[in-house]
Write a structure and sequence with these properties.
This protein is an alpha+beta fold. Among the domains are: 46 residues, no CATH class; 86 residues, Structural Genomics Hypothetical 15.5 Kd Protein In mrcA-pckA Intergenic Region, Chain A (Roll). It has 5 helices and 7 strands; from the N terminus they run H-H-H-E-E-E-H-E-E-H-E-E. The strands form 2 sheets. A 5-stranded mixed beta sheet has the order 3-7-6-4-5. Strand 6 and strand 7 form a beta hairpin. Helix 1 crosses helix 2. The longest helix has 23 residues. The chain is flat and about 75 Å long. It starts with 11 loop residues before the first helix and ends with a strand. One of its GO terms (biological process) is protein neddylation. It holds the Pfam family E2_bind. This is E2 binding domain-containing protein. Keywords: ATP-binding, Nucleotide-binding, Ubl conjugation pathway. InterPro entries: E2-binding, Ub_act_enz_dom_a_sf, Ubiquitin-activating_enz.
Length: 195
């Protein structure tokens, strides 16, 4: 293959040339394991993990279809756990909804504050107490980031907001604030109301 030609990954001659170049380089540096198949996989972006994952999911889908059609076993209701480390182990089970969970129940959460003079830090403490969580990792309202624990530059930028009043931050009564926390699987929307 000429030096100025573009590499065509579907052309066997081009892939062979590339394999020979890779093999020569590997021998020069005493690298073992370079094969034509591996070279072709790298050139065509073939990732073995993706293929095996796709195959596993396809097999699970076929298995569930078979169970639905024949009623030979209970079918998956809403969740399946698949372990491919030591052979294949699949366990379908149903996640149960916890009506007391603020994420599962999607019940509206309202936090009351004395007035707009309350600081963001005081609001966070009230939210922590009401939601029964240890810490908040992020807080947003009206498209603005009020506080973020990480990354560090964002934490430093939003740290001064903790000492500002809700009025200074333009958080009016009835505003919805999105809360994220490591203890929560999803963001929770909290309505802030002044008494």
């Amino acid at each position: 293959m000429g030096e100025n030609k573009d590499l065509d990954t579907d052309d066997a001659e081009h892939t062979t040339w590339l394999f020979q170049q890779a093999l020569a380089r590997a021998e020069q540096f005493n690298i073992k394991g370079v094969t034509y198949r591996l070279t072709k996989g790298v050139v065509k972006n073939i990732i073995p993990a993706v293929a095996s994952t796709n195959s596993t999911i396809a097999a699970c889908c076929a298995n569930e279809t078979f169970k639905l059609a024949t009623r030979c076993n209970p079918h998956m209701n809403n969740y399946a756990f698949i372990n491919l480390i030591d052979g294949v182990y699949a366990l379908p089970f149903e996640y149960e909804k916890d009506e007391d969970c603020i994420v599962c129940s999607k019940k509206p959460v309202t936090v009351k504050c004395a007035s707009s003079s309350v600081t963001l830090q005081a609001l966070i403490e009230r939210i922590l107490q009401q939601l029964n969580i240890k810490e908040i990792s992020g807080m947003r309202a009206s498209g603005n980031t009020l506080y973020m624990e990480r990354p560090e530059p964002l934490r430093i930028a939003t740290l001064p907001n903790l000492d500002k009043s809700l009025g200074e931050l333009k958080l009016s009564s009835g505003i919805e604030v999105s809360i994220t926390a490591s203890e929560l699987t999803h963001a929770v929307v909290v309505t802030v109301e002044y008494e």
